[in-house]
Amino acid sequence: MQSLPLPLEGITVVAVEQAVAAPFATRQLADLGARVIKVERIDGGDFARGYDTTAAGLASHFVWCNRGKESVALDLKDPRGLDVVRRLVADADVFVQNLAQGAAARLGLDAATLCAEHPRLIAVDISGYGASGPYADKGAYDMLVQCEAGLVSVTGTPEQPVKAGIPAADIAAAMYAFSGVLAALVRRGTTGRGGPVEVSMLDSLAEWMGHPLHHAMHGGTPPARTGLAHAVIAPYDAYPTADGGRVLLSVQNDREWRRLAQQVLSQPEFADDPAYATNAARVENRERTDALVAKALGVLGADDAVARLEGAGIACARLRDVTEVAEHPQLAARDRWRDVGSPVGPLRALLPPITLPGGEEARMGAVPRLGEHTGAVLRGLGMTDADVAELVRDGVAR
User: What's the whole-number mean pLDDT along residues 93-119?
Assistant: First the structure.
C-alpha cells in the first residue's frame, strides 16, 4: 500500500521572520511538507543566527527552528527587495511575519493589507501583545512576556520566582500560529477564502496559565510557588537517592499512599495513620511526609528507587538534565532521532512530535546558510542571471 503524502505538500509559505516565535511555527509547516521561503536581512540575516555557536559553529536556536527552509536574503528597505517579497506572496498560500510592531504595516506586509490584495492568502501577524491596547508598541521578548503573563510568579521556590528554562512565550505563540494556519487552510478548503490570523505572545501564554489563573480568579488566592513540589498534593516532589540522583514521585490518591507506605516505605503502619491517610492530612503534614519518603529512597540507587516505585504502581520519573535527555532510552527505543543537513554537516535532531502513521515521515530538511537559495528563488520568479547579479551587486540581495 502506497504511503500517504505529507499533508502540506504543495503549500507554499513565505515568512519574514526572526528569533523563535515565527520561525518555530513555520518549521512545523516545513516538517509537514510545506515549502517555506524564509526572507532574511542581508546584513546577518535572522538575528537568531548570532545567538551562539554551540551547534558545531551554528546557533542552537537557529538550528532548532529553521530546518527545511529556503533562505532568501533581501533588503526590504529597497523597493526592489520589497517587490520580490510581494511577488513571492502573490503565489503563496501562507505569509507569516513577526517583525516589530508596526514594521510590517509600514512595508505593506501586514495581514490585513495582504489579505485584501490576495483573498486566498492566509496571512499571520505574530506580535508580543497584540495590535491594539496600551501594550501594543511595548517591546516583547520571551522573558518579559513570561513576567507579564504571570508564569514567573508561579515558577520557582517560595523565596525566589524564576523564568521557565525554555522560551515558553515564544513556543506558545508559535504553536498557536501553526494551528491557526492549519485551521485557516481547512476553512479555505471549504470557502475558497484565506484571511488574517492574529497571534500574540501574551494571549498565548496567558491561555497556558489556565490552571493557576482559574485557581486565582475563582479561588481568590494565587497558587504558591513550590519548586518541584505540588501546591495541593503530597507527596509530590523530587527526592535524592544514594547514588546522587533524584527521583520524582507523585501520589495521586489515598490508595496509592497505602501502597507507597506498605511496599516502598516498608512502614505499613502509616497507611491508615490519620496524620497521613488522606491527601489533606499529608499536605498539612508535608514536612513529615516528605521526610518519610526521603528516608526510604535515600538508601536506594536511582534505578532501584524507580523499580520499587513502579512495582508499587506509583508514578515516578528520573530527574534528568538535558544531556541525559539526549540519550533518553525511550527516545532511542522509538527511533526518534534523525540527522539533519546543515552548512557544517549533519546535526542530530528529534523527529517532530506529530506522527502520521501510514504516511511519509516528516520532511526534516537542511538548515540553510544565509541567502543559500536567493538566486534559485529569484530565477523562479522569472529573473535572469543578469537581474540577480544586479541585485546582489547593489546590495539588495545576497
Answer: 97
